[in-house]
Amino acid sequence: MELRHLRYFVETARELHFARAAEKLNVTQPALSRQILALENELGVELFSRSNKWKIELTQAGKLFFIEAQKILKDSTRAINLARSAGAGGCGRLAIGAISAAIESKAFTSALRVMREKFPMLTIEVVDSSSGDLLERVRQREIDIAFLRSVPAFPADESLVCAHLWSDPLRVAVPSTHPLASQSEVELAQLSDESFIMIPERNPSTLRQYVETFFRKHGSFYPKIGIEIYNSYTALRMVAEGLGIGVVSGTYSGFYADKICYLPIAGHSPELPLFVIHPAENCSTSAGLFLDTLREQRRIQQ
After folding, report:
1. pLDDT attached to residue 207
2. Same structural domain for residues 261 and 225?
3. What is the SS3 assignment for 90?
4. Which stretches of the chain drop beneath a pLDDT of 50?
5. What pLDDT shows up at residue 243?
6. How far apart are CA 259 and CA 266, in angstroms?
7. Whether residue 140 sits in one domain with residue 196
8. Residue 42 CB: number of other CB atoms within 10 A?
9. 54 and 121 within one domain
10. Residue 180: CB partners within 8 Å, gap ≥ 6?
11. Can you give the pLDDT at residue 84?
């Protein structure tokens, strides 16, 4: 018995008409009748009652066989899809490491959604961590691919690959009750006396280093730090409560939208780069698929 015979039988059982079933199967009616008869001979039972020349009916054996045949065809289709998915890297587990700003980007969440729809048998783990920690975890093969801001102490043995993906614009986050909130952009000079909420200096943060260098170069001052905190979400919550202002990636724009305004800096377009890191050899197929999907979603949304 072949799957082809089961498909012929199932379609005929659905139509209860040889001519219509043959048309849908793209075979001739005599050929279909011969295949059904051969199946009945192999099983040793009649599957259809042919008392009426124009209309056929399922026998009791045919009704039971119809139920089981549909299950077999469904299982075979699932097996084929699983095999194809595995061959394309769509099975197993994919561990993705990323800084919070990358995870919050629309391209990242859209890429996750596309991967889930295309590869439902693939389990995706997303690790939210700092750049330095992610680099080491890729090096130790604890995660398959990582998205981070900088590449500190990049290994000289070429065991990892680093590539620049894109750069995200920075925004000044101010409480909606702040005098600056009514502006469409902010001058650096207007920030010289403000109290900032930032990541601690002892933390190897690319963002803090970049912001301090940028303010010193273009505004001739260093930002005054009022509160230091490691978590960007908590920092934005503090901004929303009026405890200070912050500088964040534009990917955060929209958080606490009723309490925070995200302003570009007038005359300048400060941006932070986003890099991807993965093993130079034996990079998982699913990691490559995700990277391609991420790039495509970024292109679509630009």
Report:
1. 82
2. yes
3. coil
4. none
5. 96
6. 22
7. no
8. 10
9. no
10. 172, 174, 186, 190, 245, 261, 263
11. 63
Number of domains present in the structure of the chain: 3
φ and ψ of 15, to 5 deg:
-85, -30
Q: Between β-strands 195-198 and 224-228, what pairing exists: parallel, antiparallel or unpaired? A: parallel
Strand intervals (E) in the chain:
48-49, 57-58, 92-98, 122-128, 145-148, 160-175, 195-198, 224-228, 246-249, 260-263, 271-279
- In this structure, the answer to whether residues 161 and 285 fall within a common structural domain is yes
Query: Do both 136 and 281 map to the same domain?
Result: yes
What is the spatial distance between Cα 250 and Cα 253, in angstroms, rounded to a whole number?
5
CATH of residue 81: 1.10.10.10
Count other C-beta atoms under 10 Å from residue 107's C-beta.
Answer: 22
Contact 200, 230 (CB under 8 A): yes
What pLDDT does 139 receive?
84
Cβ burial of 84 (10 Å; 0-12, 13-18, 19+) is: exposed
Q: Tokens 């066989």 belong to which residue?
A: 65
Range of the domain at 283: 92-165+273-301
What would the pLDDT profile of 105-130 be if each residue is shown by its tens digit? 889 999 999 998 888 878 899 998 87
Query: Using an 8 Å Cβ cutoff, are 71 and 80 in contact?
Result: no
Residue 134: which CATH number?
3.40.190.10
110 plus 251 within the same structural domain: no
Contact present, 147 and 266 (Cβ < 8 Å): no
Which of 255, 144, 265 has the alpha carbon at shortest distance from 194? Answer: 265
Same domain, residue pair 206 and 115: no
